[in-house]
Amino acid sequence: MSGGDKCEGRQTRSAQNKVQDDEEMEENAARTEAKVLAANALMGHEGIPGLAKLIEELGQEIKNGFSSFKEEVKADIKNEFDAFKAEINTRFDDNYKELQDQKRIFGVPEGVEGASVSRFVEEMLRRELELPAETRLLIQRAHRALAEKPEHGAAPRSIIVNFHQFDTKEMILRKAWQKRLKIDGKPLFFDHDYAYDVVQKRKAYGGIKRVLKDSGVKFQTPMTKIKIHWTDGTKTYGNPHDAAEEMRRRGLDVTTKITEQKDDAMARRIQQACSWQRAQASEERSRSTSQRAREKLQEFRR
Q1: Is 103 among the domain residues?
Q2: Is position 92 within any domain?
Q3: Same domain, yes or no: 26 and 59
């Protein structure tokens, strides 16, 4: 099913839920009006005690109705979020498979690639890495990062290279990391083409890596983790917070800003936003029902 079909399905379900909510609120309004009308009759037979009993019953009915409505809204929000998260995960998996065959080259000056980025990259790799003539790179496409061309003197955009085979990409990366290539006397940096969320998580280790480098401690950053080679052994940390805590215990001064990236945090924010919208709509319908009830009571007083 396409993304458009899924979105249309969610919109249809939301529309159906809205119609059902409107019908339930109208039924509640009708019952409220019936209770008010019954109050007029009771005043002639049972007096104030009968009216008090009717008001108590009406209050309990409204309370039960809102409790039921609240649970239905929570269930709707959870279902919508679960469907949304499943769709995002599917798209992420598809994108990740493509990124596995790509790498980025940083530091290539703007314009040196000429008319064909693919031809420039292949010729540069063969020349600088001294690849055998029979090596087939099979570059499917290569292009600059999709961003505005930087001003003169600013850092150049990276070049994204997509290889037909994953093994070829890994071989190029290993050789490039070993040889430390340069162009016009400036170093080139080769890395995997990570997904956006992975890039953001890797950036969170920036302060930690600076402190480790200044302290002469070796480290590696596989994907969203950091592996630190301490004198008493190597340890891997899954997030900046744990790594920073260990560094402080070892006497290294490090500060790191931890951002909330858990799925339940995202769910909480989305549910809060959705609950606010639904609550606002139900509040407006509730005010309409209350207004009709007040009008009936005013008629009763007259």
Answers
A1: no
A2: yes
A3: yes
